[in-house]
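User: Structure tokens for both sequences below?

Assistant:
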Amino acid sequence: MPIATVNPANGETVKTYEAMGEEELERRLQLAEATFRTYRTTSSEERARLLNRAADLLDEDAPEIGRVMTTEMGKPVRQARAEAAKCAKAMRWYAGRAAELLADEHPAEADVRDSGASRALVRYRPLGPVLAVMPWNFPLWQVVRFAAPALMAGNVGLLKHASNVPQTALYLEDLFHRAGFTEGVFQTLLIGSGAVDEILRDERVKAATLTGSEPAGRAVASTAGEMVKKTVLELGGSDPFVVMPSADVERAAEVAVTARVQNNGQSCIAAKRFIVHSDVYDAFIERFTEGMKALRVGDPQAEDTDIGPLATEQGRADLEELVDDARRGGASVLCGGERPDGPGWYYPPTVLAGVGREMRIHREEAFGPVATVYRADGLDEAVLIANDSPFGLSSNVWTRDEAEVDRFVRDLEAGGVFVNGMTASHPALPFGGVKRSGYGRELSGHGIREFCNITTVWHGA
């Protein structure tokens, strides 16, 4: 894929970039290594001051960078501005809490006395340059949720962003530089995916984080394993949205629409499989389908647009193949399901019922505004359907029965269980999945410690 901004609303190429050559890439790796030697010794207070400044600048830039994101990957501009605000919030959260999250830990004297220590502690120290391989769907947020904790921990960042969001990638480097961070603390590498393996093998790069496809995650994990380097992987999901008889069905259906189509349906944590108890199935499906039909599809730069185009032409083709396969297998199309005429990579909000296990969409992630609905005759069947997926990122359950809540929390195979609400990431809550959704955690205290050397300090008598 060329490194270029291609407007998905009309398919026109806005700007192209040359990939960095070997000489420039080597210069940047040298700079990252050299910068880390000094940046690692800066105080938490100084890092916080710089990160807060970056948050202030991002708030000022939100209208413009929002338009850039929308031009590059098609999300409605209102959602783009909200993404920028969320990033600024996360920066401030880590700036305010990193010192506490990384404070020395002191085991109780009685617990370590028989080790021969007069005292002992655990200290969190930075690892070094961390490579971040990031996707296009949340081009600011995916990066900031790595960068904010990593930089506050004293690491330096090397960003390999998706090739279709180069302007956003370069903006991020410029943002941190304008905030006052030393040049080598955060660098954007304009390179193709083929260059990632060599960079990860470089001894100067100490760890990697990737959000993206399962094949990309396998490739990074394989190389990192060979080189014995720490990785955090978030590889997408096919999250269940379970509705039980005691739920507020009208509210559940309303939230379900947003949960499915946020970011044009191109979200790892978007609810994708809607599992509804037979007692409320008809009522839920009627409201849900009506809500999907009512969404406004159009120019993503317009303030009243609910759904813009998909980010890439190939992405739309992949989504169409999943829908067509389900249709051939006997699934019912309750709304949508047909590519509209005209320019741009648009696809309508679509609801599929009668989906079977043999259909591709049952086991593959549908990255776009397509929902699949399932009927469950009881809690056991709902759990069975929910777990019948290779992914396990998050989940949503709607019930007022506390015993049912306990059962779902116990048995759902996912990194999160959201009760009577939709999945959302938040700086204070750990984010990540199980199964083929990856491993490790971002955000919260867990996220900032992922790229730390957890050091035992032992003092003799």
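Moving on to the next sequence.
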Amino acid sequence: MAIETVNPATGETVETFEPHDSAEVERRIAQAFAAAQTLRDTSYAQRAQWMHATADILEGDVDRAAAMITLEMGKPIAQSRAEVLKCAKNIRFYADNAESFLAPEELADPTAVSASAAGTVWQPLGVVLAVMPWNYPLWQVIRFAAPALMAGNTGLLKHASNVPQSALYLDELFEKGGFPAGSFRTLLIGSREVAAVIEDSRVKAVTLTGSEPAGRSVASTAGQEIKKAVLELGGSDPFIVMPSADLDAASSVAVKARISNNGQSCIAGKRFIVHADVYDAFVDLFVDKMKALTVGDPMDEATDVGPLATESGRADVAELVEDAVAKGAQVLAGGSAPDRPGWFYSPTVLAGLTDDMRVVMEETFGPVASVYKVADREEAVRVANQTTFGLSSAVWSGDENEQDWFVANLDAGAVFLNGMTVSYPELPFGGIKDSGYGRELAAAGIREFCNLKTVWKA
């Protein structure tokens, strides 16, 4: 795949970039390795100062960075600005909390282990490779980079090939904030070259957010090298609506959950599982609100839904819808691409789904919602858990006992009650099953790429 910026709203190639050759890749790995030796010896206070300066740069650059994001992957400009500011918030969160998250711990009674003192310390691993997707070009990277650098690690980034401007922006960002040269380096390489980077002895771990096949490939290489890996591989998240729910609020949030980021979000609500007692009322509200969305130029503040990021991505969505319709699904809204330049797809609602339809089990990465009618909470959980994914979930219910039951029975890395799934710096983020393993964000995220070292003293 060419490394180039293609405007998804028009299909026009904006700029093409030369991939890094083997000599440049070697130079950048060497820079990151040298910086790791320096960074691990700096204090948390010094790293925090650099982090806050980096956040200042992002906040001051919000409009330019947001326009870059929208140009490269097509999300509405207001959402791009929100992404940039969220990155700054995450950077400040780790600047302020890293030291406490990684504080040494002393055993209360060291005599229990025949010692005068005993406990644990956290230490950085060194160079960590991040293989990142295009759907949140800055946020996906920052949520790894901020904790990694605050822990004293350095980062290498292999970004998606359709967001090279974002990749190069990140290549300079932390150094502008004051971090030692080489603390974070972008590699403009193709996916076939990732394995060689993982295999490099100077690279100590890898994290990937992306497709399940990409995750299997990276995990296989990391396993062969006996290196730590964290994987976030997408999801087909259930959004369950029970009779005690506030249907107007639930339907409004359901629309936002499905079309945020033009529907291209791992944690988007994708399968809307509705109790039979409120199915018709909820679906009527949901469909009306989906039909009312404005599809258009992502640079226009009034736009709700922009184009999909790639032509192939739109083709994938269209194929899933066409397969479902051919097998008897009902199209309650949308169902096709509008007749206009760019890679747009109309907000779509499908009903009458059966297990032989691909959309039932596969992740739909675009503004397409699937609705299911269920008889009770047991059937709701059966439908919710039937896919191979387990990233997040949402449940709308006014019954606290019912809420607790769903929390206990849903196979997912998170359950959001009467809301939509959102990633927060303060909360761990990650999935189970084919959605991956490991966690990002919160204390768990910064500890993933550290060595928990036991210290025993006679």
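User: Anything stand out in the second?

Assistant: The chain has two domains: 4-233+433-457, 237-417.
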